[in-house]
């Protein structure tokens, strides 16, 4: 990454009661401050208001609705204050939001939430997907670490264990659908849980932590056999229309693509540059785009690839966040009926298989299989034809050095009228395949 490129990275740290959110925020702040970043910590709006004497038990239904609406308005304004400060800073800035906009939806009905969205001109894509770079959910100790669950250290906390589990699930469900959503469960001891949380953020940002935050979490991909069960068999889910287009690249060992992702006519746009493996890791540079920049970049579409159309279903099951990609026509015949399930997990082999959704028929794991990379799936030519650009692995031949052959992190994105917004995240994955 160009050292002159200032970065502002916005995360939401959410979770259930006694999940490690307070400790995690302090540790995360210290970690990034030691890297030279400016860290802003946005306070939890609900705690600020509730500590002023408000009691939910004293509110009638209309008052409770108005309170949640004003809470969300207040939260957005407080966040905007920190966002503007970060944008005006000359330093790299990490903004840690203690809960975020979608958390409010966990405390009112779906109908009330839709009413609130409509009356204020808000929508889920803007509040959930476009407002924050990453969501991290810290699972309550009441789910998997019951011996450590306590309410003694929090003035506004009085939940029993069953209620804590319910609140935890509701808080996680509120964020289902965000493209970069990490669930940090209690499968390890608390210290490792905190390190996994920090590592998940560093990994999405492309920050090399060496062996300071050892974690074996990685993306896993599975082939799903159809037909899929009916919608009522799934846990609560969010469906998105997703469109991918590969772009022409100036370098033979890099891939560039555009993603358009949306619900109900509201869209988010992302430009991704995928680079060869460095120390066993694929480097991805992701940049959020405006609609205008997205349309302009479409002029660079690589016509040797089909446009990929998917329905992406996001859901939580067994404390794992899953994305189910259902390929749609028009497409190459190889994609007809194709369904792939992805998750990001630190669970070891065997344990992850046990956590996979039981209502889906999993054929096999295809992590690292180039036949199931989106790059290869979208190729117009048959894979065994002479003109095929089938990619077995993104790597630079030994005869070429990284410094001599690969542009810097910001290369490949043209500077159009008005420019491209600052990079929102570089993702490092331990996959050895193209996506």
Automatic annotation (TrEMBL):
Q: Which organism is it from?
A: Nezara viridula (Southern green stink bug)
Xref: SUPFAM superfamilies: CYTH-like phosphatases, P-loop containing nucleoside triphosphate hydrolases
Q: Which residues form the NadR/Ttd14 AAA domain?
A: 10-192
A GO molecular function annotation here is: GTP binding
User: Gene3D superfamilies per the record?
Assistant: Hypothetical Protein Pfu-838710-001, P-loop containing nucleotide triphosphate hydrolases
Protein name in the entry: NadR/Ttd14 AAA domain-containing protein
Report the InterPro entries cross-referenced here.
CYTH-like_dom_sf, NadR/Ttd14_AAA_dom, P-loop_NTPase, TRPL-trafficking_regulator
Give the GO biological process terms: photoreceptor cell maintenance
